[in-house]
Specification:
mainly alpha
């Protein structure tokens, strides 16, 4: 009877160790994915800043062109 208890305890410990190892690997995988997403986020944030600067430059050029047309005397 004592041998069965020891074997059951050993089996339980082995299952817990296996579960711990699976959870550890899952956590490492999730941390890696999180790092990738964080990197993507920083990249996209940089792109947004670049697009905002380009939009401002485009708007300034467009305002300048509109201003030139406004100052022209197009009446005959």
């Amino acid at each position: 009877m004592a041998l069965d208890s020891v074997e059951q305890l050993e089996a339980t410990i082995n299952r817990l160790l296996e579960k711990h190892e699976r959870m550890k690997k899952a956590q490492e995988s999730m941390e890696k994915k999180l790092q990738q997403k964080d990197s993507e986020w920083h990249h996209l944030k940089g792109q947004i800043r670049q697009y905002e600067r380009e939009r401002i430059e485009f708007r300034e050029k467009l305002d300048k062109i509109i201003g030139q047309f406004t100052s022209m005397d197009l009446s005959d």
